[in-house]
Amino acid sequence: MNHAIRVHExxxxxxxxxxxxxxxxxxxxxxxxxxxxxxxxxxxxxFRTGLYKAPSLPFTMGMEGAGIVEAIGEGVTEVAxxxxxxxxxxxxxxxxxxxxxxxxxxxxxxxxxSFEQAASMMLQGMTAQYLLRSTYRVKSGExxxxxxxxxxxxxxxxxxxxxxxxTVIGTVSTEAKAELARANGCDHVVLAGExxxxxxxxxxxxxxxxxxxxxxxxDTFTASLDCLxxxxxxxxxxxxxxxxxxxxxxxxxxxxxxxxxxxxxxSYTMKRSDLEHVAAELFDVVKSGAVKLQINQRYxxxxxxxxxxxLEARKTTGSTVLLP
Length: 324
Fold this sequence. Notes:
It comes from Sediminicoccus rosea. Keywords: NADP, Oxidoreductase. The chain is of the alpha/beta class. The protein has 2 domains: 3-122 and 266-323, Quinone Oxidoreductase, Chain A, domain 1; 140-262, 3-Layer(aba) Sandwich (Rossmann fold), CATH 3.40.50. It is built from 10 helices and 16 strands. It has helices spanning 42-49, 115-135, 152-163, 175-183, 196-204, 221-225, 250-254, 265-268, 272-287, 304-312; strands spanning 3-7, 16-20, 30-39, 59-60, 64-72, 84-88, 98-102, 107-108, 143-146, 167-172, 188-191, 209-214, 228-236, 259-261, 295-300, 319-323. The strands form 3 sheets. Strands 3, 5, 6, 7, 8, 15 and 16 form a 7-stranded mixed β-sheet that branches. Helix 2 packs across helix 3 and helix 2 (115-135) packs across helix 9 (272-287).
């Protein structure tokens, strides 16, 4: 028997339906994974609502999970039956008790990392890795801004950036989240509704910032640009408040010849060698203790609709896992 969360039409959390589905069989290059934990991410909301379109309806959502390889298809050499594996990429299908996935998109979970940890960190942690180590490679002594600093990606980024020697400014929506961000190393916290550029100017003595990491989107985009020093980089990697409207690129010149990028994890892990490198660096920083994972919410997989409600209401902090 196998169950999954299925979406037959785009809409609210009530569109997430717990259904019995056939147990899939791995094709060539695929494996069957018995899932032990599934990661919850804001990209799941985008697919549920239709902001991002699924290949077809109905579909099983979810990009991230961890489990045990139960069977392998023809030609699979990357993993073997019994291996503990994790993933954080398409095709979708993570919201299931068992699923197939491409073998070359899996990484083996090292000793010392649990299924829940792996499921909670793969997408968020590898996102933090490429943002801090590739998109803009932060340097010791720099002051940087991380939006949604108490969220899943945010808490990992704050800790990692501190380990790299940065001074971190974080934005959060509540005082409770501000306390959480500070407890994880955030040097300065700015609450939603405050004048963000003015706060950054005060903190930096007018120098402003070399980089802003923005996962909020529409509500923070313009203020984020105003926090940057000339030649600074705006990294827009999420749309929690909605998509950023089309802009006149001349604004980048007017504000100091700024750089703007909209990166995705898929581009940074397209090659298997890149995927293995990004995952290995993430596993190492977690095992070293420099980054401590915050799994602050756990839901039964069948209760995914409630998890989505809480995520969209900004009631969650850190990472959330769904348990089959």
